[in-house]
User: What shape does this take?
Amino acid sequence: MRTVVHTRQGDPAEVLRLREDPDPPPRPGAGQILVRLLVRPVHPGDLVGVEGLPGLAEQRPTEVRTPGVEGMGVVESVGPDVPALRPGQRVAVFPAPGTWADFVVVAADRAVPVPDGVSDETAALMLVNPLTLVMLYRALDNALGEQGKGPVLQTAAGSSIGRLVSAAAVRHGLPLVNLVRNASGARRMRESYPTLPVVTTSDGDWREQVRHHTGGRPLQVVLDCVGGPLTQDLVTLLADGGTLVTYGRLGSGTTVLEELPLVQRGLTVRGVTVWHWTHRTPQERAQDVAFALDLAQNTPELFEVAARYDLADVNAAVEHARRPGKSGTVLLTSPRPTGAAQEDVR
Ligand SMILES: NC(=O)c1ccc[n+]([C@@H]2O[C@H](COP(=O)([O-])OP(=O)(O)OC[C@H]3O[C@@H](n4cnc5c(N)ncnc54)[C@H](OP(=O)(O)O)[C@@H]3O)[C@@H](O)[C@H]2O)c1
Assistant: This one.
């Protein structure tokens, strides 16, 4: 059994190592399942967990920690009181801390059976990003209010999430401006979403370009996962009373909250995290999972894969995940099981 581990935060290339254990995998307890993982993503948030956040005190894991929160695999065994799942069944899991390993034990209610026709790779990507989209759209609806229809801008529009947001904007007729950081990213977005305007921050006049695309109207909402000094510019483009929804920190540097005209202009800053998804009611969560399954079944092209690496090549995978211009998500894979448990694997 192979497990990616780290005992301190820092540069993934320095702190991550692959541990090989001769011991059998752990046994699931009551209400739990043991999943033999086949595919798991390398999300930006996974790397934050390894490195820590700049500006925040280092969190020292008190014990060995394994990154990863999402993945797909095959149920290896089930504990007592798990009527709905059986060994050999394909499942996607989230939130499931420690998926960068060959096996993970997870509560059965965090496993979603993978429908026939959904590939292993799509299944490995079908929970975190679609559920983040759900959370972002809810924040967007609240910020737009009853008559509000935008305009809205999103940063890092070429990201995997940004593409989901763009597809949803096209579907709902939301006036969205996509912001990227360079011309090649802009070209890719225009090819994929030709009806949505794209602006590049490497152009000196990018703020004027945004205003041009909104017909001079200030932005009602910004969805931002870059942060840093860009925040000042984003706030300048917002309408009085507008909302900055922040959900990531891809950029470097910081913006001082007190230097933003939040009070004078009645602005709102709202943080969104997919971790709060677990606070939703069971009925709401079931609806959200049904939405994610529908996306995976009917629009698998929205779950783009940038590259695949064996779990043992975790450092190469992390390096690729951070490469500028990468499109899609990097996956970490494990060999498929042999024998009876293979029957459901696609
Ligand atoms: N809050 C939550 O619960 C939650 C959940 C999931 C994801 N997220 C966040 O959502 C964001 C996107 O995640 P993802 O998995 O979709 O990312 P991804 O597929 O890895 O894509 C990253 C994108 O960001 C762009 N980028 C990277 N650094 C940038 C910078 N400094 N300035 C501007 N653009 C930059 C890259 O563009 P280039 O083509 O220019 O390289 C690439 O398009 C991340 O910040 C992640 O942490 C948050």
